[in-house]
């Protein structure tokens, strides 16, 4: 029950070459520029490591797992507990192994999702600091959410239907304590409404013009205060203007141009951990 | 010695004594022992009432009186012959009987004296009235006998320990017998000449004495939060409140509104003890075993004023956690556990606190070594923290848990999928397994209702939606549905409202149950506790070890026998209710079938006539008595016929006329009242815009009119406690089409019992939004809330909708269903809608809607006519017949209704009046015209009530029969908190007690309530 956004460690995974060709895609058919994607990822990791001072565990890529760079889907960490998921896409199931090992190494209490009827992608899990919202998507089902609820008993777990996007966090994320960044599409707004209805808490919302821009990474780090990693002006100029209104935040634009082509978002590329959570 | 023992004793005595009696007389004969020799009346009485109901004093007289019934007495030799004589004997015997009974069961305590005096008074009274000559001498004798016998009996009591009772009675009996024998002989001779009537009257007179005498005490066992047991004696008919206050006093708890007492019902389900209702009626046959627990979990415990309150909350939460009711993660278990240790043990002490020092504590449902180690580790880190600080920290962490303060109920959705309904401070949560699948914040909910085993909530339309939707859930049974409904009503009121709804008003709003949360709201309790001015009370923190251990201690119920002075007539009267009701409630289930199914579709009004005729001819002893039996249940049967059709045809003039006559009636009532307010009546009369409106509605609309009419109907609540009669069917009779509500005269049978505990078939509760004040809690306004004002019109229809619920079919599952059948309530209200109120605030809206205007039945002296008109039923259609999990949009109906909303805008009337007429069966002899004799006039002031009773007695002689009519006028004035039904029930009970041999044939209730002043 530590302060929301407090992290000490991050788990990331390198970009496999297979990402360009074999990664799962939902919409975009744009060709992914592998070198640029790799560079993009390196920048991302360096922000975490150098800029923010997190201890970063970098897992090697696995060519057999084209989507392995998106470690977020493999585990949900909250407090001292890590729930190792059962990703909705069968081809990604093996991604969890390496992530589990890494999290185990960090001393987290590991909970595994062994139920074969359950699926859950970490990208569908929004933790607000007070409760969980789990997107019911093509990748995540109710059973997966139930197991999540069982793993994190302190928190309410509410279901939010996700339509038109891969994950719940494809159009929203936390931009601060009790602050939800949300896209402006109907789908996003509808999901937000549901979340508001389901919650006993009242969240502020930060509405950005572009749904994809609503995926950002909030941290609250000692000595740095509120930190927000968000999209770059090149990608979503209008949305960046919205982020820039957050005067108290340390704003760090991080490019995600390439990975977005394979449905990758900022949050997808890391699992954040707070080791002193208790 | 406990009460129960007393009753048991009686029972025990029976067998022993009965044999004795048999030698002498027919054991079966209760009231009228044939032989003078039969000196021991008790056995007889007990025979009559073998049941435990002995404790039920009010009943006993009735039963006894009924026993003589020709049909009942078994033909045993000689009995018949003697009957003539025996008839005359009974009174005396009875009197003694009553004394001996009372005394036997009572311990010789100081209380007794006042009682005896009373008895004497009462006894003497009746005698004078009936037959002066013969009776007077007798009376004297009896009294003598009484006094003589008394001391003996007292001794008896003393001598008699519970085990020895039989012996004791045996000893005393001889003495008694002798005396009685003497008196009896004399009496016989004199009495022979007397008429039966006299006897009866005397009997009736006597009975009250007996009734009043016993004040049974019961020991209640309350499991406190620290696991200890608190035992407390309460009067058997005490209300929940009494016990609760005792417990709070014991705990030195001031901020008590967050807490409550619960008990396990027969199905092992936890039920909250309603403070305003008698305990006995609520627990029914369960043990007098309760648990003191937190009922409303304060969302922010830091706002509690006193540490002791926080401490108790901690204890509750520890229980919740250890039992698994409040799920926590490992870390949280450890953290909370460590705070518990700190609070109870203080700083970690390596010397004292060995490894296993905590193994006795239960921190989690499944406690592991690992957890204990973690707890210890954390405990060490709390060094220096005071117990109060540790508690505060505990609460700060516990309150964040998602299931904190969530009261879960098993249910199924429309598809039969298992879900959980979680009632909490902010609203209703729906869970499937551990997932929250929906949530309905209080502001979103327009109405909460239940019908049979279904529980419904009506949802305020969202931005995009046009209509309200209703969501239904299926609960395991009727009781469960009612339970969740009650919990919702209470939580909504406590957390959402600034002050509880006015109970009086709420009555009109509901159908079926008038249950409302009557305690303080959170806002009120916070305010109150901010005024607490006392040094922090000292209290001992008990080790949590005890919690786990003592919880399952087997509670033993000890009953003690206490003799108590009868307080005021009022209390006594009220008390008597208990037993009678009990009977009803017990017998409920079978009755359900009796209920006839109302046809909702039927356009025509079908009237069910309950052919229950109770005659009360003073003279006819036997037959009448029988009828009395029925009355026992405190039910008054009202005949009802269908005048609906007539009403339909009424013109506005008729209506006005009707009203005028009503007002006249009311006026006459008012004269008797200390504070007549004729002006208001007048206002009402002239200003009855409502009437006009209704008329319009009637004439024009068919189905739609319900909107107007409906609300009225809606308010009608009939609680039928009466088991036997058909009456319940009546409500159904209402023709759906009859918009005529206005004129209807409702005839119904209504159980006088004030006990709303009985199970209502269904009930609903309209969420009242805090009008002026939005509850403190609701700081975070839900987006929906903004719309409230605009939505009001929409909301209105919903009200209407509720009615459909009317007891269409007897609850299949709920045995209790019969108890409260929503039938047309007799209330006639002249109440106008406040609806029009400019302040369109939603909060205000609901009440106005319900404002119903019913025409008071004209009860001008003429006994017979009351017609029931229940329009409301029509609406039923709108209610989803099937439980729906998903939002159900009811379009047409609502839309139609909405258009009519305008009608509701009626000028405000300041006074609310209500006249209820209950008619028992018919008396042919209408003594009405005859000038009565003013017998008594007394005023009793207690608490907030002022009761004035005026009694007129009229005697007429017809043929060989003399008929005595007693008319009592009781005026009760007090603040709005009066439970009118209860007062009524009480009054009736008292009347019955005083004249057990007479039957209540008519009850006219006239009620005037001042509405909020602002409306003036």
Automatic annotation (TrEMBL), chain A:
Amino acids binding substrate: 24, 67, 72-73, 92, 139, 262
GO molecular function annotation: amino acid binding; dimethylargininase activity
Keyword Metal-binding: no
Listed SUPFAM superfamilies: Pentein
Keyword terms of this UniProt record: Hydrolase
Hydrolase found in the keyword field: yes
Active-site annotation: 167 (proton donor), 268 (nucleophile)
GO annotations of cellular component type: mitochondrion
GO term, biological process aspect, one: positive regulation of nitric oxide biosynthetic process
PANTHER family: DIMETHYLARGININE DIMETHYLAMINOHYDROLASE (PTHR12737), N(G),N(G)-DIMETHYLARGININE DIMETHYLAMINOHYDROLASE 1 (PTHR12737:SF17)
Similarity annotation: Belongs to the DDAH family.
Descriptive protein name: Dimethylargininase
């Amino acid at each position: 029950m530590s302060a929301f956004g407090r992290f000490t460690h991050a788990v990331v995974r390198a970009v496999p070459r297979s990402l360009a060709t074999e990664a799962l895609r939902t919409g975009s058919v744009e060709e992914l520029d592998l070198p640029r994607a790799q560079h993009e990822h390196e920048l991302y990791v360096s922000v975490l490591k150098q800029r923010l001072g997190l201890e970063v565990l970098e897992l090697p890529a696995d060519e057999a797992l084209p989507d392995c760079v998106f470690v977020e889907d493999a585990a949900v960490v909250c407090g001292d507990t890590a729930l190792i998921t059962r990703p909705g896409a069968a081809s990604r199931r093996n991604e969890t192994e390496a992530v589990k090992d890494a999290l185990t190494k960090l001393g987290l209490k590991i909970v595994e999702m062994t139920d074969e009827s359950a699926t859950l992608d970490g990208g569908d899990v929004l933790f607000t600091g007070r409760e969980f919202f789990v997107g019911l998507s093509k990748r995540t089902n109710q059973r997966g959410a139930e197991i999540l609820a069982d793993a994190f008993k302190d928190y309410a777990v509410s279901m939010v239907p996700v339509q038109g996007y891969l994950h719940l966090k494809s159009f929203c994320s936390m931009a601060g304590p009790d602050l939800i960044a949300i896209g402006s599409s109907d789908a996003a707004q509808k999901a937000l409404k549901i979340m508001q209805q389901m919650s006993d808490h009242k969240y502020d919302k930060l509405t950005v013009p572009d749904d994809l821009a609503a995926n950002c990474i909030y941290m609250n780090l000692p000595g740095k205060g509120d930190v927000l990693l968000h999209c770059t002006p090149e990608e979503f100029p209008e949305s960046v203007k919205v982020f820039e209104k957050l005067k108290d935040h340390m704003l760090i634009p991080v490019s995600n141009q390439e990975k977005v082509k394979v449905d990758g978002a900022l949050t997808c590329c890391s699992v954040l951990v707070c080791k002193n959570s208790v | 010695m406990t009460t129960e023992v007393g009753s048991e004793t009686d029972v025990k005595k029976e067998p022993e004594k009965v044999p004795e009696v048999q030698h002498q007389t027919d054991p079966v004969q209760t009231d009228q022992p044939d032989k003078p020799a039969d000196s021991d009346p008790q056995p007889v009485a007990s025979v009559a009432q073998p049941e435990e109901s002995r404790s039920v004093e009010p009943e006993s007289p009735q039963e006894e009186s009924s026993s003589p019934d020709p049909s009942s007495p078994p033909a045993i030799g000689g009995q018949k012959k003697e009957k003539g004589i025996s008839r005359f004997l009974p009174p005396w015997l009875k009197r003694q009987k009553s004394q001996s009974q009372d005394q036997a069961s009572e311990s010789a305590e100081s209380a007794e004296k006042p009682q005896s005096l009373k008895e004497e008074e009462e006894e003497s009274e009746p005698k004078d009235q009936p037959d002066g000559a013969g009776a007077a001498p007798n009376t004297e004798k009896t009294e003598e006998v009484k006094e003589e016998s008394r001391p003996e009996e007292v001794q008896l009591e003393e001598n008699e320990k519970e085990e020895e009772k039989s012996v004791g009675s045996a000893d005393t009996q001889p003495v008694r017998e002798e005396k009685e024998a003497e008196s009896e002989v004399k009496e016989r001779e004199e009495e022979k000449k007397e008429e039966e009537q006299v006897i009866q009257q005397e009997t009736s007179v006597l009975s009250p004495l007996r009734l009043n005498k016993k004040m049974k005490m019961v020991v209640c066992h309350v499991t406190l939060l620290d696991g200890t047991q608190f035992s407390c004696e309460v009067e058997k008919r005490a209300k929940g409140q009494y016990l609760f206050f005792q417990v709070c006093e014991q705990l030195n708890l001031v901020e008590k509104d967050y807490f409550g007492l619960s008990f396990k019902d027969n199905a092992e389900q936890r039920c909250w003890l309603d403070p305003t209702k008698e305990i006995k009626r609520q627990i029914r046959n369960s043990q007098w075993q309760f648990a003191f627990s937190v009922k409303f979990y304060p969302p922010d415990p830091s706002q509690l004023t006193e540490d002791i309150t926080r401490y108790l909350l901690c204890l509750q939460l520890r229980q919740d956690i250890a039992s698994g009711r409040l799920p926590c993660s490992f870390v949280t278990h450890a953290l909370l556990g460590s705070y518990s240790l700190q609070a109870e043990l203080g700083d970690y002490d390596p010397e004292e606190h060995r490894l296993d020092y905590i193994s006795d504590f239960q921190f989690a449902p499944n406690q592991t070594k690992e957890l204990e180690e973690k707890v210890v580790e954390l405990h060490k880190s709390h060094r220096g923290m005071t117990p109060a600080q540790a508690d505060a920290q505990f609460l700060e962490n516990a309150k964040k848990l998602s299931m904190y303060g969530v009261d879960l109920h098993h249910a199924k959705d429309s598809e039969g999928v298992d879900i959980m309904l979680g009632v909490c401070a902010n609203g209703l949560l729906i869970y499937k397994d551990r997932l929250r699948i929906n949530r309905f914040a209080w502001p979103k909910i327009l109405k909460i209702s239940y019908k049979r085993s279904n529980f419904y909530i009506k949802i305020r339309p969202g931005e995009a939606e046009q209509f309200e939707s209703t969501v239904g859930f299926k609960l395991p049974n009727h009781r469960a549905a009612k339970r969740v409904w009650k919990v919702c009503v209470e939580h909504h009121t406590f957390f959402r409202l600034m002050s509880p709804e006015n109970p009086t008003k709420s009555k009109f709003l509901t159908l079926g149950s008038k249950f409302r949360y009557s305690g303080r709201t959170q806002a009120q309790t916070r305010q109150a506790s901010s005024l607490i001015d006392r040094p922090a009370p000292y209290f001992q923190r008990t080790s949590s070890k005890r919690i786990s251990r003592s919880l399952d201690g087997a509670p033993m119920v000890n009953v003690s026998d206490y003799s108590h002075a009868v307080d005021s007539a009022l209390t006594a009267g009220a008390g008597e209710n208990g037993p009678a009701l009990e009977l009803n409630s017990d017998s409920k289930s079978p009755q359900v079938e009796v209920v006839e199914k109302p046809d909702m579709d039927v356009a025509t009004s079908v009237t069910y006539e309950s052919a229950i005729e109770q005659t009360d001819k003073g003279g006819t002893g036997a037959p009448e008595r029988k009828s009395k039996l029925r009355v026992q249940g405190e039910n008054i049967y009202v005949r009802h016929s269908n005048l609906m059709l007539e009403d339909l045809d009424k013109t506005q003039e008729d209506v006005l006329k009707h009203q005028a006559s009503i007002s006249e009636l009311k006026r006459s009532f008012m004269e008797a009242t200390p504070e007549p307010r004729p002006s208001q009546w007048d206002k009402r009369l002239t200003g009855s815009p409502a009437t006009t409106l209704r008329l319009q509605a009637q004439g024009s609309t068919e189905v739609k009119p319900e909107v107007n009419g409906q609300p009225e109907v809606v308010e009608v609540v009939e609680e039928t406690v009466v088991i036997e009669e058909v009456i319940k069917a009546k409500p159904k009779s209402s023709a759906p089409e009859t918009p005529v509500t206005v004129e209807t005269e409702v005839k119904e049978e209504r159980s006088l019992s004030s006990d709303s505990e009985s199970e209502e078939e269904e009930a609903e509760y309209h969420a009242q939004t805090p009008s002026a004040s939005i509850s403190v809690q609701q700081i975070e306004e839900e987006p929906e809330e903004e719309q409230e004002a605009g939505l009001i019109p929409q909301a209105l229809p919903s009200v209407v909708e509720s009615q459909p619920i009317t007891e269409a079919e007897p609850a299949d599952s709920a045995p209790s269903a019969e108890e409260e059948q929503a039938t047309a309530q007799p209330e006639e209200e002249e109440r106008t809608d406040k609806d029009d109120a400019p302040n369109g605030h939603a909060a205000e809206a609901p009440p106005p809607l319900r404002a119903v205007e019913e025409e008071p039945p004209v009860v001008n002296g003429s006994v017979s006519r009351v017609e029931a008109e229940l329009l409301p039923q029509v609406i039923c259609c709108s209610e989803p017949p099937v439980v729906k999990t998903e939002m159900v949009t009811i379009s047409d109906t609502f839309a139609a209704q909405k258009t009519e909303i305008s009608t509701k805008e009626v000028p405000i009337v300041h006074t609310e009046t209500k006249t209820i007429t209950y008619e028992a069966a018919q008396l042919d002899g209408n003594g009405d015209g005859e000038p009565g004799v003013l017998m008594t006039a007394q005023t009793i002031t207690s608490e907030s009530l002022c009761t004035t009773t005026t009694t007129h007695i009229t005697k007429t002689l017809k043929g060989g029969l003399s008929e005595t009519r007693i008319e009592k006028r009781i005026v009760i004035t007090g603040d709005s908190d009066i439970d009118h039904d209860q007062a009524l029930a009480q009054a009736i009970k008292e009347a019955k007690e005083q004249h057990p041999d007479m039957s209540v044939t008519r009850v006219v209730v006239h009620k005037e309530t001042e509405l909020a002043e602002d409306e003036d």
